[in-house]
Amino acid sequence: MTEKSTDAGKLKVLMEYWVNHNVEHIKENEKWRERAEKTGLMETAERLRKVIELSEEVNRHIEKARQSLDEESKKELPVSSRDRAASEAAHEHIREEGHRHIALHQIGVIRTPYINDAPRQPDENGRGDFRIIVNEEYAEGLYLLEKFKYIYVLFNLNQRRAGHSLIVSPPGAQGIKVGVFSSRSPFRPNPVGLSIVRVKRVSENIVFISGIDAYDRTPLLDIKPYMEKLDCKPGAGNGWASSL
User: Mean of the per-residue pLDDT values for the chain?
Assistant: First the structure.
């Protein structure tokens, strides 16, 4: 692999780190902005709001830079070289047999009223402002989404504690232990959350939704429509939870 392609790969990893790092700062600034506002420190609260907006703008530019990097890398390599470079890059990410690191990119952010605590399941009647803000470069992908009543939302569980367990005790299961893949536990090998929420309306790059079980400013990974014809399975049952 050439030095240029190697540097491009390193830069992609750095860009992902920069975005996630900024997201953490945004959450902390939002928390202190709300505290400042509640205690009457209005000028401080306003300055923190501007800091948050600037940080979000920085993340949008980083994402655009990452897209430009992808496009430039493709243009500079002939097709055969691209295939070879892609194969080499994939093998570089294999740390041990059967273990591969896969890069996912944040495509937006989920806004909720939950700063320090969040419910364990989506609450369709949850009180507060619930929105999905998709990065502007992906806004066109929301075309006709408002035609669906419900959507799947996939997001990064970036506020979970470190580590995971293959055997878990689900809340309210009275001491029952099950495998993590038989549960909705957030402490999973891959920190990916999945929720079904109702679509209230779509405006430009913003999807207004019913209550979702996610902290404010949770990174958005994907949106998919919930389709009754495909997703509703009569008689699906509730597995081990049926006996509770």
Answer: 83
